[in-house]
Amino acid sequence: MALSESARQPGSIGDIAGRLTLWARRNPQGLVRVEYSSEFARQDTMQRLKSQLASDSIPVTEVALPFNQAADAVVADLLNQLAQVAVEQPHSLVSITGFATAFHHQAAWPDALRVVNFNRERFAALQLRQIWWLTPAIMQTAIHAMPDLNSWFSQRLQLTEAVIPVEATKVHLDADTPTSNIDDARQRAQTLIAQFHQAKEAEATDAALLQTYLLPALEALAEASAQRDLRELAGEFEGWLGSLKLDGSADLAQSLDQLARIYEKQGRYREALPLYRRSLQIREQQLGADHADVAQSLTNLAALYYTQERYDEAESLYQRSLQIFEQQLEANHPDVATILNNLAALYTNQGRYDEAESLYQRSLQIDEQVYGADHPKVATSLSNLALLYKIQGRYDEAESLYQRSLQIYEQIYGPDHPDVAINLNNLANSYYAQGIYSEAEPLYWQSLHIREQQLGTNHPDVATTLNNLANLYQAQGHYDKAELLFIRATEILVRALPEDHSYVQGGLSNFTDMIQAALAAGQANQLSDHPITQAILQQLREA
Known about the structure:
The protein is mainly alpha-helical. About 70% of the residues lie in helices and about 5% in strands.
């Protein structure tokens, strides 16, 4: 019987269920690792696996790790559960979940997973087929903290398809809206927030409220923070965090980081800055100047400075962060790759192209080695390197990398994700630079549609695409279309950014160039009487 299209798609529910079924039928015992983002997709995969193995009389047991425990206790509990299953149903299949919430806190993951790694022979000796389900966040730590155990996984799979339950579809505008793991993140966050309020009424300790509810909710919300309907919810977290008497704790620093990251994704840069600074201050006081968590805070703050065009401050922080990571971590650690990527972007913006290309290439090599060729981290590195090539006029090389990056993002996230919009916009920019307007226009409109849908109509990224599309119409002499888009872009940027920000000034400069071009072409009659247009015309007359 022919497989359906979704079953053929690498990383789909059908694909992963099929691979696990073949593995279970061929191997009486062993370990498999599956990376996943969507809990609902994982459950769907397990349902299919159980159904397919029923005909082979292979029993399936699902084991959940205990919540928020010390590493020794988690490992002991898991080994006891597995040993019991092995006695009662030898060679059965066991699905193991809950690694991301099993240990005391995310900061303890490396040490906790080393305890898991130390017990690898005990896990491997069990007469069971074991599936270990790991979320992307803990996967990054597990790759380096469990090197021996990782080598014993006979298959390392990645479940990329995401679904939501039927009752959750009411949040969509229409039934045809594609699903994504953003919906899972939204539901996790809102569930944890409800539990937080219940626990607070029950007079739970502030430490428990933060560790058990708010921090996990923030981590989930960070995955969905681009959603325009979550802006007010994100703002409420500052009040909740401020009400907890945990000043100076590592958990508070992590929470401030997560909330700042949410604000940053929403374009709320002024609100993000003090949170990043406070997080850095806490970590330096608690951990010392050369701790890896301090380096992460430095990276976060540097990225925001870069966005605000404070390049000297950003470079200094990136360099300090890179030095710490290279001292504390392996040379091919993904955190090192992230810093290299960010520093390369800064050098690109400063015109230091040779330095930037070298860092991008090194970063890409690390990401491909750590994650494989089809991971979002790799897609980001490809897109950044493509931008550098475009700036240098190396269009064929840029287009090839943009296309590969776009393919990865669409495969992982679906067609309507903000990262897909970024790649569409970048690819359109490359076509525009070459004068291939017929190829650029539909990509700009597709990117604009995704960004308005996912980020809201007043996000700076929406203004970026509006500005690019306006430039395209200006180049074609469609000054009336260009004007409308420039007006929208200007209004968004003036609200979101300081008046002297280059995005604001650059947008106004482009708008002015368009009006001058319309005047020179004798097409001023295409322009409207909008106040921004008239103000620019007045400035031109007075010049």
